[in-house]
Write a structure and sequence with these properties.
It is found in: Cytoplasm. One of its GO terms (biological process) is tRNA wobble uridine modification. One of its GO terms (molecular function) is metal ion binding. Its cofactor is K(+). The structure is a single chain. By secondary structure, this protein is of the alpha/beta class. It has three domains: about 100 residues, Probable tRNA modification gtpase trme, domain 1 (Gyrase A, domain 2), CATH 3.30.1360; about 140 residues, Four Helix Bundle (Hemerythrin (Met), subunit A) (Up-down Bundle); about 170 residues, Rossmann fold (3-Layer(aba) Sandwich), CATH 3.40.50. Helix content is about 45%, strand content about 15%. The chain contains 16 helices and twelve strands. Helix 4 packs parallel to helix 16. It is flat and about 85 Å long. The N terminus is likely disordered.
Length: about 450
């Protein structure tokens, strides 16, 4: 929520710890009336010194009833998370205590409950962080794996923001050179100075292209690698998913066509989030419901990062099963019923698998080969995410903005190499590139982006 330049922003408050019962519950405040609120809650005591925890009795200012004995932390602007006066009340975590303090805060003048992500939103608006750092806060809160957390921390530390601002500063300098030749043609500006920026523009464009050619590794790490488990009915897909998950996720029967709707299960494989999708068996059928399940299975397989093709070697030709599944290079092939196969089965089956595909033999009955399969999936996922090392782009909006900047630079470079360069058009192309970069960090169109970004946040952040 934003305020006009003439209105006084209201002070917001929210619980920052999860709801429910716990040892400690934290309530955050931020805004110009924070000190007044602390004074009302702790009557008869001077305000705590900034950034020093102080044990205080929290009381209802109307009735005088003591609600709790809590630690109070006070932060003065601009040295706070939001850049405003702020405070934390570290209460005992019982529901009655928290509800009573929230009720009192809601009665104090100038205070209101915070909206989702409003503390971080205020931090962005006050200049305490840029949009990429704010997104990293949300990603760190949502991280399920070590890899996701590490990537979010790197972005919070400015890995993307610093790079983008560095590119933007270089483009601004290049644009200034061109503007100088446009605006001061008769002054002491060296002839052809605009052409001297062409190598810098090309160098930045090359860096853009290298960043964009990352195979979406950052987005995949953040969102999780999607693996569609595909194959014919009764190949053992659902049993395999259950075995990898370590619990019964999918129904397993001997009846073909049991799985009709896609079933998803999230896994953490060596720090990389992976989503397995158990899909309907691929076959021709007259059952309209199963037909829809097969259609959806093919669609999910086409959209997935990997297709894990499950084949029963006793009943299915591998080449035909792979063709039906629409495999791509690198997709893993899993042969089930390992406990029923002869000792030389691996060599015989490998000879039937054309192309570059990891191959694993497993038994969902004995568990044989499941460790090998988990290791193979972890290796493939790490390859798709780059192991979480050095990824700059972590969201679709970053990629779209950088792609727009790259196209603007290509246009600028083409303009400079034209026999009769139109410097005004080149300058406009550079401005478009700078604006696109500014949208990544929030220098441009920040209000438009804030609503979409902070919709993902929890209330107390």
């Amino acid at each position: 929520m934003t305020t006009s330049a003439t209105s006084r922003p209201r002070t917001i408050f929210a619980r920052a710890t999860p709801p429910g019962r716990g040892a400690v519950a934290i309530i955050r405040l931020s805004g110009p009336d924070t000190d007044a609120a602390l004074g009302a809650l702790t009557p008869g005591r001077a305000l705590p010194e900034p950034r020093l925890a102080s044990l205080r009795r929290i009381a209802d200012p109307v009735s005088g009833r003591v609600i709790d004995e809590a630690l109070v932390l006070r932060f003065t602007a601009p040295a706070s998370y939001t850049g405003e006066d702020a405070a934390e009340l570290q209460l005992h975590g019982g529901p009655a205590v928290v509800a009573a303090v929230i009720e009192v805060l809601g009665r104090l003048p100038g205070l209101r409950p915070a909206e989702a992500g409003e503390f971080t939103r205020r931090a962005v608006l006050s200049g305490r962080m840029d949009l990429t750092a704010a997104e990293a806060v949300a990603d760190l809160i949502a991280a399920d794996t070590a890899g996701q957390a590490a990537q979010a921390l790197a972005q919070l530390g400015g890995r993307l923001g610093r790079q983008v601002e560095g590119w933007r500063a270089r483009l601004i300098r290049a644009a200034a050179m061109i503007e100088a030749e446009i605006d001061f043609p008769d002054e002491e500006v060296p002839d052809g100075i605009a052409l001297t920026v062409a190598p810098e523009i090309e160098a930045i464009a090359t860096e853009f292209r290298a960043c964009l050619a990352d195979g979406r590794s950052g987005e995949r790490l953040r969102e999780g690698v999607v693996v569609a488990v595909v194959g014919r009915p009764n190949a053992g897909k659902s049993s395999l998913v259950n075995a990898l998950a370590g619990r019964e996720i999918a129904i397993v029967t001997d009846r073909p066509g049991t799985t009709r709707d896609a079933i998803e299960v999230a896994l953490d494989l060596d720090g990389v989030a992976l989503t397995l999708i158990d899909t309907a068996g691929l076959r021709d059928t007259d059952d309209p419901i199963e037909q829809e399940g097969v259609r959806r299975a093919r669609a999910r397989a086409a959209e997935a990062d990997l297709r894990l093709v499950v084949i029963d070697p006793e009943t299915t030709d591998p080449a035909q099963a792979m063709a039906e599944a629409g495999v791509l290079p690198g997709d893993p092939i899993v042969f089930t019923r390992r406990d029923r196969l002869a000792g030389d089965a691996a060599d015989r089956l490998r000879a039937k698998v054309a192309g570059d595909h990891p191959m694993v033999l497993v038994s969902c009955v004995t568990g044989a080969g499941m460790g090998d399969l988990a290791a193979a999936l972890a290796g493939l996922a790490a390859g798709l995410t780059g192991g979480g090392e050095g990824a700059m782009i972590t969201r679709a909006r970053h990629r779209a903005a950088l792609d727009q900047a790259a196209m603007a630079l290509d246009a600028a470079a083409a303009g400079l190499t034209h026999p009769l360069p139109m410097l005004e058009l080149v300058a406009e192309d550079l401005r478009r590139a700078c604006d696109a970069l500014g949208r990544i960090t929030g220098r441009i169109d920040v209000e438009h982006l804030l609503d979409a970004i902070f919709r993902e946040f929890c209330i107390g952040k």
